[in-house]
Every structure is written in C-alpha cells, then in structure tokens.
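Q: Please design a sequence for this.
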C-alpha cells in the first residue's frame, strides 16, 4: 500500500491496536505492487491464480468489480491488462482495521491511511471527529473541515494531484486522467467506497464527476478545479463543521 497509517483510538484494549497494526503489515505483504514477492505481484505475472491467493485477495477483487460496474468503468483494478487493486485496497484496509478496533471494544476510532480516514463512534461524549480537507491551491491551508456529528460512522477520502502529482489514470485510455480538477474529496459511511468514488470522480472531471456523486445514495463530495472553483454536492453542507 506504500503509505503511512495513524490511529486515534478511544477505549478498548491496547493489544487490539497492536493486532490491527500487525494485520496492516500482513496486508501490505499481500497487496504491495512494489514487492516482487507479494501475492498481487505474482498474480499479475501469472504465477498465482486468485484461488491460490489468500482469501482477502479475492474479496478485494470482487469489491473492485462492483466499483467498476457502479462507476460505469471509471474505476478499474487493472492497469495495462494486469491486476492492480491499488485504488481500492488502501481504503478497504483502513476501514477493516477501524472496524476490528471497534469490535474489540473501542468507543471511538479514527484510522488514517495516507490522508484517507475512517471514523467510527466518537472521541468523547457529545464530541464529533473532525477532518481537515487540504486546499490544493494553498499549501498548508484548508478547503473545508468535515465533522462526523450525527454519524456513527463516516469516511473521508481525497483523490488529486496536490500530494502525489498526476497518478490517477483514465481507465478508458490507460493514460493519466486529463481533467479540470485538482482534487476530489468524498464523504461516505465506508472508506472502501469513498476511496473508489473519489478516484472515479476525479477521472470523470468536475461536471460529470459532480453529477455522478450526486446520484450515489449516502455520498457527498467536494470538488476543486484548477480554476479555483469549488463545487459541492447538495448534501455536503450537512458535514461541514
């Protein structure tokens, strides 16, 4: 997955965090496209079948197939004909770790993987989690602050060029996506899907991406264009705070 993970866990046994970290390391070994010996790399080279991989590999690929169908092909877990679930596995792994911590007894969980966050419960009674959305045109500035007030679970995922440069591909041309967008932030209950939808909407561009996000139930988005225009779904205002 090639990123840094951070945890803010309120309550629950300390060993649950150790177990979550160990599981994330195991998933990195399975899914890393930077490791020649990972199962995903071996699968891409044809040295393994999906049936011969750890069951979580099939789980992620099945979720990716759903994302591809729901995005009309704008999200894909394949690159140049080779399997590459990079666009879904980070969000899925973060959400998986967060839910394991909640199941272990935590009252509030925030797990951040490379800037994409899964929030569950609350940090304290009557207090919501808050996540800042970086402004791609103003280094160090915030474009918005998302609050989890009123939600038992919330995820915030961003796709764009500010942190990693051009890395989102147009799955139809297999080339870097050329759009008017600098960043797309998606707010949804599940980080697995928020991560996928942010990537797909970025590849679509601001007009089509905004319309598509509006069509998804329980999903809101903030889109920032290279022209410093901010476009939001109708329901985003309810998450600002």
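A: Design:
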């Amino acid at each position: 997955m090639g990123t840094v993970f951070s945890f803010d866990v309120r309550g629950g046994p300390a060993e649950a965090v150790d177990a979550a970290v160990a599981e994330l390391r195991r998933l990195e070994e399975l899914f890393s496209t930077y490791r020649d010996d990972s199962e995903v790399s071996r699968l891409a080279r044809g040295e393994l079948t999906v049936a011969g991989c750890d069951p979580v590999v099939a789980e992620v690929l099945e979720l990716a197939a759903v994302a591809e169908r729901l995005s009309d092909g704008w999200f894909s877990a394949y690159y140049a004909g080779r399997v590459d679930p990079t666009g879904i596995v980070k969000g899925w792994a973060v959400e998986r770790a967060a839910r394991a911590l909640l199941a272990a007894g935590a009252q509030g969980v925030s797990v951040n993987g490379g800037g994409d966050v899964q929030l569950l419960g609350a940090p304290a009674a009557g207090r919501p989690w808050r996540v800042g959305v970086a402004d791609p045109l103003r280094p160090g500035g915030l474009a918005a602050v998302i609050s989890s007030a009123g939600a038992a679970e919330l995820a915030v995922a961003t796709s764009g060029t500010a942190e990693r440069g051009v890395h989102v591909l147009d799955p139809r041309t297999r080339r870097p996506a050329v759009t008017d967008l600098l960043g797309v932030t998606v707010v949804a209950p599940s980080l697995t899907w928020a991560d996928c939808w942010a990537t797909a909407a970025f590849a679509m561009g601001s007009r089509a991406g905004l319309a598509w996000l509006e069509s998804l139930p329980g999903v809101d988005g903030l889109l920032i264009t290279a022209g410093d225009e901010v476009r939001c779904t109708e329901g985003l205002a309810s998450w600002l705070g």
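Q: Thanks. Anything notable?
A: The longest helix spans residues 14-31. DSSP finds six helices and 13 strands in the chain.
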